[in-house]
């Protein structure tokens, strides 16, 4: 585990200089810093990817730096950095009628919710910040902090668009949490543990040992989970909380500058989290699809990032392919399709396991 | 255990710091030229009309209530799922009963059309001041 | 007993759960005009539950679910009382015109859930279980009280009930938490064990806790000064629910109080030490005063009522007072007399309410004017009402007399320090005579005479017969009841 590893390493290095308590704190802070760095880099990459993928899907070239000014670098590579700088330089406005403390609190909460989910995500066999024994449960739990902050943002802005957006997002995220949770139950039933690393270790030995191929019900669970996860991250086709054409920008209407950037960043961070959970829970995590082929711990990171990245790509793909749902369709799909489906899935997997695996 | 959740605690603190630093940088380098119009609530360019802290649709509360029931259900399922493989058939029967009861609940809210976002049939009343006619509810 | 072993003794409740689910699901498939069917489902289920309760009543007393609840003959008796009253109310709900506008599926289902809560109330020996069961009953009562959702008064009743209920259960929970803090356990027997060995330093906390707990108990049985919800809730609720609330939760409430005080604060004989734990407060006197105030208040205010339903609400407060008279003694005889009184009270009070429902169906009102000339228009109903009024007053040869007789006998037998309670009870009976006979007077002497005689419809008539016969017979021949109650006087008692 990373914290222990860093602690050992540092105490070997700095033995006698610093007390072990402060060493422990340092060894806890270092991975957090690393995670933050990872989120920043990942966000820049995925924003660029989003721009490019959307452009290609729409038969355009997207941001390009060709020409006199070369203003966005080669192939527009500097575009996300320019975006970030622009957000940093924007004037920060808090409307005079807003509830100021809550208005300030909301971006903090949504980012922290996304940030601390990363703590329990396994990147490799030994690369995980803390290997919590309730890892998957923790990620689900921490993930719901987003609802709270979206309601906060919507309510504190004292803007009708924000309020509608906030309430819609609350209803939506909260509803889709149930099919998502029920689908993950299937994973836990098969793996028999809540620990992320143990779930991944259960899937060792090639592609057919992955949980998604365990029995015919799990692929359904995977699809239900993945769609619910997209809904939970508020992405098109489920982006009703911020649907531009009806609610301006939903809960983020009154936010500008860096505060807005954090909502943005958290959305991308949440995308990573839900995709990583899907990759770890259903797609074998850091295991190689073929046993023995590129199956060392170092390649583990490669597989994990790639599987997650592929799922993120699917999310982007869906965003630029499908139109937005209506609110009642959204709720119908959740409560009348996914929830019964997820429940049937649990029964199916349970019966299958009892009949065939005992 | 302490180390695990201690890390989570430090992650929260780091999160606060990580959000604060860009905000401070932005506060230092971004222009600040506040005017009354800028600080006004955005309502598509019109003058803001009243406060936004008003009543909203009761559906949100109903969704929240239904969510609460099923979320508790999911939470109960987690420990069961962990021991499911060891216990086998007994676990299946026990949780089957539990889930069937909840399915009855789901069927109930479904039939009572509490899952519809838009209620096409107005069941009770049919207009704010109109007394219930015997046939409007079925 | 462990959880799995307990299931065998928990069969009544399990059957009840299945019944509730069946009722809920049946409701989804029937048309509005056919929702009486759910009453059938619940009724049949309750009969089966009653049989299995009866089956278990001979089992040796034991605790279930790791000392959460007990089964003993006492709880079986109370459960059967509850089932009887529920069955009667279900039948009455079929013919109550107030409910015609609404679907009754949820009504019956909620009633079933309430029975579940009442069952747990009668048998819990753990303060957490106690609180949960009280909450189950309370929340279901709130919904039932507000069931006429197009009627403002019913909504008012539900809302008032919620506010009073939330407040008193909050106070009670606070008291229970103090008891837990003193005893370090939520189990009755462990609490008794610890409290009896406490020295005087904890007295203020104990007194506070007991007063707070009594707020919750008092609210359930509507004793003064926690009775304020009663008249408004009783008046606004559907009449069948009023009848139900005045009987079943009261029975369970008394069962709960008896069990709590009997098993936490007394040895097997009664509150002999004249004080609870090591506190110096004279608890028997305090409860006695509360009882006297309760019945006097109920009776005096009942005199001034214009509506018979409201009058019966106050009279139910007064009857709670009569039953509380025996609480200060809390010997086995006292418990016996309360049980006999409760059993009789179920029939006479439900009977009176059924006639109010019937009259409301006929005339659309429930005030004294609506009863004018009833004795001439519907002699049978008038005669039944007279019988119930006699019984509620406690005049021989009706069953109410026997109930009062047992209570007074206990008090006289318990010694001269309880004699003032007997006198107060006697005086109150005389006061109550006035307003009960006011009804009779109005029925036979008021209004115009009519040559057309109407008879009640058969269901209503059956209900009246079913409540009137015990109200009369038990006044003449109460030996079976007395011996049944005597057999049921077995508590589970654990020696720590």
The share of residues in extended strands of chain C comes to under 5%
Residue windows where pLDDT falls under 50 for at least 5 positions of chain C = none
Total beta-strand segments of chain A: 0
From the spread of the alpha carbons, the general shape of chain A counts as globular
For the largest beta-sheet of chain C, the strand count, sense and barrel status come to: 2 strands, antiparallel
Number of strands of chain C: 2
Poorly predicted regions of chain A are none
Q: Largest inter-chain interface? A: A-B, 88 and 72 residues
Structural class of chain C comes to mainly alpha
Order of helices and strands of chain C: HHHEEHHHHHHHHHHHHHHHHH
Gap between N and C termini of chain C, in Å?
16 Å
Main pleated sheet of chain A = none
Radius of gyration of chain C: 22 Å
Strand order across the biggest sheet of chain C?
1-2
Mean pLDDT of chain C: 87
Give the helix tally of chain C: 20
Mean pLDDT of chain A: 83
Number of domains of chain A: 1
Q: What proportion of the residues of chain A form beta strands (DSSP E)? A: under 5%
Oligomer: heterotrimer
Could you give a quick summary of the protein structure above?
The complex is a heterotrimer of chains A (358), B (138) and C (496). Chain A has 358 residues and is mainly α.
Q: What does this protein look like?
A:
The complex is a heterotrimer of chains A (358), B (138) and C (496). Chain A has 13 helices and no strands. With 358 residues, chain A is mainly alpha-helical. The radius of gyration of chain A is 21 Å and the shape is globular. The mean pLDDT of chain A is 83. Chain B is mostly helical and 138 residues long. Chain B has two domains: 1-31; 53-125. The longest helix of chain B is centred in the middle third of the chain and has 29 residues, at 59-87. Chain B is flat, with a radius of gyration of 26 Å. Chain C has 496 residues and is an all-alpha fold. Chain C has a domain at 282-489. In chain C, strand 1 and strand 2 (69-71) form a beta hairpin. Chains A and B meet through helix 2, helix 3, helix 4, helix 7 and helix 11 of A and helix 1, helix 2, helix 3 and helix 4 of B.
Topology:
The complex is a heterotrimer of chains A (358), B (138) and C (496).
Chain A: H1 2-13, H2 20-57, H3 79-89, H4 100-117, H5 135-143, H6 145-156, H7 160-191, H8 196-202, H9 218-232, H10 244-247, H11 257-282, H12 297-319, H13 327-356
Helix pairs in contact in A: 1-2, 2-3, 2-12, 3-11, 4-5, 4-6, 4-11, 6-7, 7-9, 7-13, 9-11, 9-13, 11-12
Chain B: H1 2-29, H2 36-39, H3 59-87, H4 89-111
Chain C: H1 3-6, H2 11-29, H3 36-56, E1 62-64, E2 69-71, H4 73-94, H5 105-123, H6 127-145, H7 152-183, H8 188-196, H9 203-221, H10 229-236, H11 239-264, H12 283-303, H13 308-325, H14 332-363, H15 374-377, H16 379-393, H17 399-413, H18 419-445, H19 458-476, H20 479-487
Antiparallel strand pairs in C: 1-2
Helix pairs in contact in C: 2-3, 2-5, 3-4, 3-5, 4-5, 4-11, 4-14, 5-6, 5-11, 6-7, 6-11, 7-8, 7-9, 7-10, 9-11, 10-11, 10-13, 11-13, 11-14, 12-13, 12-18, 13-14, 13-18, 14-16, 14-17, 14-19, 16-18, 16-19, 17-19
């Amino acid at each position: 585990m990373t914290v222990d590893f860093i602690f050992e390493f540092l105490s070997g290095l700095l033995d006698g200089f610093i007390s072990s308590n402060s060493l422990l704190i340092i060894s806890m802070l270092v991975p957090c810093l690393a995670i933050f760095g990872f989120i920043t880099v990942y966000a820049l990459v995925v924003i660029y990817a989003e721009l490019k993928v959307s452009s290609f899907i729409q038969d355009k070239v997207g941001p390009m730096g060709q020409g006199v000014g070369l203003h966005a670098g080669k192939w527009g590579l500097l575009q996300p950095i320019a975006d970030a700088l622009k957000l940093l330089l924007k004037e920060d406005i808090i409307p005079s009628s807003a509830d100021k403390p809550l208005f300030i609190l909301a971006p903090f909460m949504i980012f922290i919710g996304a940030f601390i989910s990363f703590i329990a995500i396994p990147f490799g066999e030994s690369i995980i910040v803390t290997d919590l024994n309730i890892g998957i449960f923790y990620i689900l739990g921490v993930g719901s902090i987003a609802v709270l902050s979206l309601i906060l943002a919507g309510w504190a802005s004292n803007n009708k668009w924000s309020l509608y957006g906030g309430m819609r997002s609350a209803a939506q995220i909260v509803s889709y949490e149930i099919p998502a949770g029920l689908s993950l139950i299937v994973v836990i039933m098969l793996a028999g543990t809540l620990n992320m690393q143990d779930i991944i270790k259960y899937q060792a030995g090639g592609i057919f040992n992955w949980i998604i191929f365990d029995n015919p019900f799990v692929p359904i669970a995977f699809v239900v989970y993945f769609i619910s996860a997209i809904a939970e991250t508020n992405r098109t086709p489920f982006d009703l909380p911020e649907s531009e054409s009806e609610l301006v920008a939903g809960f983020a209407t009154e936010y500008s500058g860096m505060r807005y950037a954090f909502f943005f960043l958290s959305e991308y961070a949440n995308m990573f989290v839900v995709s990583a959970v899907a990759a770890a829970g259903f797609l074998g995590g850091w295991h190689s699809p073929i046993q023995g082929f590129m199956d060392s711990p170092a390649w583990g990171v490669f597989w994990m990032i790639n599987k997650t990245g592929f799922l993120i790509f699917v999310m982007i793909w869906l965003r630029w392919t499908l139109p937005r749902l209506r609110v009642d369709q959204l709720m119908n799909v959740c409560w009348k399709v996914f929830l019964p489906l997820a429940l049937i899935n649990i029964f199916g997997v349970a019966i299958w396991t009892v009949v065939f695996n005992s | 255990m302490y180390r695990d959740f201690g890390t989570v605690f430090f992650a929260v603190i780091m999160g606060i710091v990580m959000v604060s630093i860009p905000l401070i940088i932005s506060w230092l380098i971004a222009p600040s030229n506040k005017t009354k119009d800028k600080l006004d609530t955005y309502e598509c360019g019109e003058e803001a009309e009243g406060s936004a802290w008003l009543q909203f649709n009761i559906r949100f509360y109903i969704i929240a209530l239904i969510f609460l029931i099923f979320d508790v259900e999911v939470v109960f399922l987690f420990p069961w799922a962990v021991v499911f493989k060891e216990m086998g058939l007994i676990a299946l029967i026990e949780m089957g009963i539990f889930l069937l009861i909840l399915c009855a609940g789901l069927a109930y809210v479904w039939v009572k059309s509490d899952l519809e976002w838009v209620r096409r049939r107005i069941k009770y009343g049919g207009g704010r001041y109109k007394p219930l006619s015997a046939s409007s509810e079925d | 007993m462990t959880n799995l072993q307990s299931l065998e003794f928990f069969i009544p409740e399990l059957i009840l759960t299945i019944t509730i689910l069946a009722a809920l699901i049946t409701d989804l498939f029937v048309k509005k005009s056919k929702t009486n069917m759910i009453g059938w489902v619940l009724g049949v289920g309750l009969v089966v539950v009653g049989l299995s309760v009866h089956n278990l009543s001979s089992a040796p007393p034991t605790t279930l679910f790791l000392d959460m609840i007990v089964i003993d003959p006492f709880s079986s008796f109370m459960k059967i009382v509850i089932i009887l009253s529920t069955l009667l109310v279900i039948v009455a709900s079929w013919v109550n015109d107030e409910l015609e506008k609404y679907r009754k599926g949820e009504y019956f289902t909620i009633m079933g859930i309430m029975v579940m809560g009442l069952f747990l109330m009668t048998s819990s020996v753990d303060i957490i279980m106690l609180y949960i069961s009280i909450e189950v009953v309370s929340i279901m009562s709130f919904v039932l009280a507000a069931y006429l959702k197009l009627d403002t008064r019913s909504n008012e009743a539900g809302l008032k009930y919620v506010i009073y209920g939330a407040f008193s259960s909050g106070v009670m929970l606070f008291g229970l938490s103090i008891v837990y803090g003193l005893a370090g356990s939520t189990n009755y027997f462990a609490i008794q064990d610890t409290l009896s060995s406490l020295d005087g330093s904890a007295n203020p906390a104990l007194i506070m806790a007991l007063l707070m707990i009594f707020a919750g108990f008092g609210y359930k049985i509507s004793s003064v000064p926690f009775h304020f919800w009663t008249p408004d809730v009783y008046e606004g609720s559907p009449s069948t629910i009023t009848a139900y609330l005045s009987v079943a939760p009261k029975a369970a409430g008394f069962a709960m109080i008896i069990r709590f005080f009997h098993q936490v604060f007394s040895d097997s004989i009664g509150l002999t030490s004249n004080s609870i734990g090591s506190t110096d407060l004279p608890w028997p006197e305090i409860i006695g005063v509360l009882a006297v105030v309760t019945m006097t208040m109920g009776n005096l205010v009942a005199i001034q009522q214009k509506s018979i339903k409201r009058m019966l609400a106050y009279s139910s407060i007064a009857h709670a007072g009569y039953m509380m008279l025996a609480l200060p003694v809390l010997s086995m005889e006292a418990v016996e007399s309360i049980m006999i009184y409760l059993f009789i009270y179920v029939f006479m009070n439900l009977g009176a309410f059924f006639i109010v429902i019937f009259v409301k169906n006929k005339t659309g009102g429930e005030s004294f004017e609506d009863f004018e000339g009833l004795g001439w228009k519907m002699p049978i109903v008038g005669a039944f009402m007279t019988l119930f009024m006699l019984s509620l007053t406690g005049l021989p040869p009706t069953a109410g007399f026997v109930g009062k007789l047992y209570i007074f006998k206990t008090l006289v037998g318990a010694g001269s320090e309880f004699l003032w309670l007997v006198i107060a009870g006697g005086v109150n009976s005389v006061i109550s005579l006035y307003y009960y006979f006011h009804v009779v007077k109005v029925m036979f002497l008021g209004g115009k005479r009519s040559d057309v005689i109407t008879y009640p419809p058969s269901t209503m008539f059956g209900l009246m017969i079913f409540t009137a016969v015990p109200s009369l017979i038990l006044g003449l021949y109460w030996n079976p009841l007395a011996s049944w109650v005597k057999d049921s006087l077995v508590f589970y008692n654990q020696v720590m």
